Structures are given as structure tokens and as C-alpha cells.
């Protein structure tokens, strides 16, 4: 049976007990996300003993639960749609015309935003805004890989509106230091795109164990942490070529920020004032003279000499 995939094995097993039937249904409904489970989590979610889970995977033909997880993860990894897979799949139809790419991406972006807009329940969105604005403790934010830049964007603007906003660096060493003080009064905004960063999954799991609220923003309906998130917001990410789009995620983040501002108005003015004082002290922004800006404008459009003559 070693070469058989999980679904093939599930179809052949007979004479199940009530507990085994629960595990089988769980495997069927949560594939491929069971690759992120543990024997403990499966036992809890199926309401059966860990020994029952172990015996069931043995009946499926795996030597041990460890062998089962290794096999499932290898099986799922082989099915993942990577950027280079997509790039190769459209090799024959690919164009080198920049205008064609521009139009293709514009149409794809508009479609993703429309899909995202239509799939978000206003009541669910309202709950997300409430958690992010009004949590009593700290607001943590995490995103890995391409999600990190989006997490950083949200973090930078959220700090204008409220205190105790913490951007988590998705590395094991720094995460353990930053997560040690998480309490039930805190909240987490987790940005999780396919192919699902394990750092983000484990961080969200920790927040759940601490009793903290979790707002999940993902481009997949089912994720390894969907069942522990207090709120999940969906962002469509289909890209026309190599890379998935992140425009819809940015759209949601900007809308969350816009919706948070009125709730935090009493803090916004004071925090902006302090930010400006600090920026002035450190000389953060370059301030060109008005004449320099005017000259640059005319030089850029080729009308400098005409302006002087007039």
C-alpha cells in the first residue's frame, strides 16, 4: 500500500467503528489541510482518543503516525501549484508585448477586487474592525514572504491610530521572544497566503491557546487556521501569469484602516502630532524648495524655455 495516496486508501477501508468513521470523515473533509495537523489536534477535533487515531492510520497501511504525516506532507507538497509551475504551464501562449501584459493585469486586478468585495459579509468585516480597534491589549501583526510587506504596511499606518501595535518578524528565534507575553486581552492580525507559512500557522495557534482573538486575512477559504480564527476575511488572488496577485489583500487592509480611524479618533490627533514632532527632530522627510520643485516640473515636460519666454 506504500505507493497509494490517502484518498485511495480511505476508499478501500471497510467495517469501521463509530470513532474510525469520525476520523475518516475528518480526513476526507480536511484534505489537504490535514498535512498541518498533529495526532493531538486530530484526536481533539474528532473527539476520539489518540490511540484510536494511531490504530486507524495503521489500518490505512502506514507504519506509524509519524510515517503517515511524512507521507501526507510529501503527497501534498507534490501537488502544490508553484509560481514556476504556472509560468511553465502557459509557456506557449505567453506574450512579450508590454501593453498586453498591462491590460491583462488590469482586468485581473479589477476582477479580483470585485470577487473580494462580493464575498465579504459586512457583519464579519465589522467584527474584524472592532477586534483590531478595540482589543484591550496589544495588537500583533504577522505575515511571511510576500505577506510580510503587507503586514508592514498595515503596521506602519495602524500605529498612527493606536498604541501597542507590534509587527512580528516571522523567524523562530525572534518569534519566541515576542510571543512570550501574549495574553487573552491581545489580538492577532494574520495575513496568510497560499502556500501557508508554517511560522504564521504556529503563531496563530499560540494565540488561540492563549485565548487571544485572531483576525485572519487569506486568499483561501480553507486554511490550516480557519477553524481557530475569530474572523476570516477572504481576498481573491488569482494572477494571470507567474505570481498570484496581492492587490485584493491590500484593498482589504486599506479598508480596515479607514474603518478603524473613526473608532480611534480620540487618539489619532495626539498621535499624529507626536509623529510630526519626532519626524521633524530626526529630519525624516526631505523638503525641496518651491523653486526646485517648479524647475523639475518644467524640465520633465520639456517646456522650461517656453515658460521663461512667456
Task: Tell me about this structure.
- With 310 residues, the chain is an alpha/beta fold.
- It is 58% helix and 8% strand.
- It has 15 helices and 5 strands.
- It has helices at residues 6-12, 18-30, 39-46, 50-59, 65-77, 83-89, 98-119, 122-134, 146-158, 172-179, 198-209, 247-263, 265-282, 290-301, 304-309; strands at 139-143, 165-167, 187-192, 213-218, 231-234.
- Strands 2-1-3-4-5 form a 5-stranded parallel sheet, with helices on both faces.
- Helix 8 (122-134) packs across helix 12.
- The model is unreliable at 304-310 (pLDDT under 50).
Question: What's this, in brief?
Answer:
The protein has 310 residues and is α/β, with parallel strands linked by helices. 58% of the residues lie in helices and 8% in strands.
What are the SSEs and their pairings?
Layout: H1 6-12, H2 18-30, H3 39-46, H4 50-59, H5 65-77, H6 83-89, H7 98-119, H8 122-134, E1 139-143, H9 146-158, E2 165-167, H10 172-179, E3 187-192, H11 198-209, E4 213-218, E5 231-234, H12 247-263, H13 265-282, H14 290-301, H15 304-309
List keywords for this structure.
310 residues, alpha/beta, 5 strands, 8% strand, disordered C terminus
Mean pLDDT: 84
Provide the helix percentage: 55-70%
Tell how many strands the DSSP assignment holds: 5
Major sheet attributes: 5 strands, parallel
**Poorly predicted runs:** 304-310
